[in-house]
Structures are given as structure tokens and as C-alpha cells.
Design goal:
Length: 333
């Protein structure tokens, strides 16, 4: 075998290309941050005549000034602070495209100050970070604005009249007979979601803040996308809308580029899901109900949701985690 000291030149070339991020002559090890790189590095070392162990280890970062999800992050990526200029802050979910145009994804209540309205907001500016994290620095809005609101799935209040034809007919008959409306059926919601058109020149890296900063394993990027965190309890339980399942219904013509989209994706009780959010970061939790019906408070109103995923408190959701992308981490054993 060749002299180990000569290995330094080879190692530094690999490091400069982002293939490895460390090595040790003492232990004869090479460090990579992704399991997928192991085979390639082993082959490269073998071809250059060096016998080193390849070990998977997260990348290291200086601790004095750690990067922040709540600061300006460019290029954009999932898991960072985002929000309409007239709200506080939520989490950037992912990226979609239609033709040559790119759109970022999050909750409707993150991209619209009043998501129960059928109309678009008067001001369409979407900030990264969200206004709360930017200190409501409206004087420097150009620094934070990254997209314009494009579309949201309207959240229907429980007090809205049903669009069901049967219910409408019964109410009409009661009106003809001189009586007040009789049947008021709660209007069902399935997703809390919206998209915003990304400005030209604003980049988006197909990854998450947690992965790029060593909080989450890189294998997360290969897990299938389920949906978005949109509500939670004070104890940390999460409510997740199945955006992957309902994407084509509400966003026909748009294609999800990130997270990894495999079409309609359902989960079962006991499955483990993972999320990456602005406030509580990367966490995982078990599914306690894969298809719940739930009443959710929105400001001074309430809305009825169907077919949502409920998780244990291990998800640790908190204010600002709305919009966190959610993946199926592993199936129940």
C-alpha cells in the first residue's frame, strides 16, 4: 500500500469537490456525510492505492455563530422562516413548478393574512424570513421579499353554509314554506395550503435547513412527502394535512419538485413521520390517528377538517412550525 502521507493531496481534492469533509491519518479514516457517497469514495481510494475506512459522519459547523432558520437564508430551502408581510412567521414547505415558473409552498394561513377569504390578499409580498423574524423591518422590504402570493385553498368556516345540493334543496324548501333555514352542515376542509410565485433570481436548493446544518440525517431527502403541519396542541401534538394526497385536486397543473413527491401517500397508526420546522427544527413522532376529523381554531373563527394525520407530542410543534414539510420516516413494525 502507498504511503499514507501521500494521501493528503488526494483527500484535499475530494474535500474541495464536496465529496468528503474530513480524514484521519492516525485512524486511517475518511469522513463523508451521506451513505450514498461511501461506495464512490471506496472506489476512488482503491484506484489511487489507499486503504482507508469510509465513515458516515455529519458535517461540522462553527458554534460561535450558528446559522439560523429565522434569519435570511439564501438560497431558499425547506424548514426556514417565511410568511406573508402581514402575518408573523411560518415555515417554508417546498417548491413546485408550472411551465418555467417556480412556486414556493406553505400553509394558506402563512401566505394569506385571512385564509378564510375567497379573495387574494391586497398585498401579495411573501418574506423570508417572516416579518416577525425580520423585526417587521418594512423599510427594507426588498431585502426580505422573495415571492408573490399566487393561490390558496380557501379555508371554510364551520359557520359557512354547505355547498351540498341536498342541503341547499332542504333549506330552499324551508324558505318557500316561510321558515328559516333548517340544515346547516359544516363545510369540510382537507388541506391548509398555498403557493407563491418565486421572484426571478431567488434560488431554491432542494434540501432542508435541518439536513444542511447537521440537525437531520441526509436520508430524509429520499423519504416520501406526506403533507404539511398546519396545527398543534400546547403539548406538541401535530395535525398534518395530506397535501401529497390532495395535491392534484387543489393544484392541478403544478408539479412538486421538493420534497420528494410520490403521489397520494397515506400513513397508518404507529407509522413514524418526521418534520423540519422553523421553531422546533427536525423532530419525529408516531401517528396516533391516520385519518382524523378535527376542529381547528383560526383567529376568532373555527374550521372543520377531515382526513388529517394526528401525531404524538414527540413532534414538539410550536408557534411558527405551520407549514413544516412532513415525510414518512418509517412504517410501523
Amino acid at each position: 500500500m502507498r504511503d499514507a502521507k501521500g494521501f493528503v493531496e488526494v483527500a484535499r481534492i475530494l474535500a474541495a469537490r464536496g465529496v468528503i469533509h474530513g480524514y484521519s491519518l492516525a485512524t486511517r479514516r475518511v469522513y463523508v456525510d451521506d451513505e450514498k457517497k461511501v461506495k464512490f469514495v471506496k472506489q476512488a481510494l482503491q484506484e489511487t492505492g489507499y486503504d482507508f475506512e469510509v465513515v458516515v459522519l455529519p458535517r461540522f459547523f462553527a458554534l460561535s455563530q450558528p446559522p439560523s432558520r429565522k434569519g435570511v437564508v439564501r438560497p431558499l430551502m425547506s424548514g426556514v422562516s417565511v410568511g406573508h408581510r402581514d402575518i408573523t412567521a411560518g415555515t417554508l414547505s417546498g417548491l413546485a413548478e408550472r411551465g418555467e415558473e417556480l412556486y414556493i409552498i406553505s400553509n394558506a394561513h402563512v401566505f394569506h393574512p385571512w385564509p378564510l377569504s375567497p379573495n387574494p390578499p391586497y398585498n401579495k409580498s411573501i418574506w423570508q424570513p417572516g416579518p416577525y423574524d425580520a423585526g417587521y423591518d418594512f423599510a427594507n422590504e426588498r431585502r426580505y421579499a422573495v415571492a408573490d402570493y399566487a393561490h390558496h385553498v380557501r379555508i371554510r368556516s364551520m359557520y359557512d353554509y354547505s355547498e351540498c345540493p341536498i342541503t341547499k334543496t332542504i333549506n330552499w324548501l324551508y324558505k318557500v314554506l316561510g321558515r328559516s333555514s333548517f340544515v346547516v352542515t359544516q363545510v369540510q376542509n382537507y388541506v391548509d395550503a398555498a403557493i407563491a410565485k418565486l421572484y426571478g433570481g431567488v434560488g431554491f436548493e432542494l434540501t432542508t435547513f435541518g439536513v444542511e446544518n447537521g440537525e437531520a440525517p441526509r436520508e430524509l431527502l429520499d423519504k416520501p412527502f406526506i403533507g404539511l403541519v398546519f396545527a398543534g396542541t400546547q403539548m406538541g401534538h401535530g395535525a398534518i394535512c395530506k397535501l401529497a394526497k390532495y395535491w392534484d385536486k387543489y393544484f392541478s397543473g403544478y408539479r412538486i419538485l421538493f420534497p420528494k413527491y410520490e403521489g397520494a401517500m397515506d400513513v397508518g397508526a404507529g407509522d413514524v413521520i418526521a418534520k423540519d420546522g422553523r421553531t422546533s427544527g427536525f423532530t419525529a413522532a408516531s401517528v396516533i390517528d391516520p385519518a382524523a376529523s378535527l376542529v381547528v381554531g383560526y383567529y376568532l373563527d373555527i374550521a372543520w377538517f377531515e382526513d388529517v394525520v394526528l401525531t404524538s407530542a414527540d413532534l414538539k410543534v410550536a408557534g411558527g412550525d405551520s407549514g413544516s414539510p412532513v415525510w414518512l420516516w418509517k412504517r410501523a413494525e
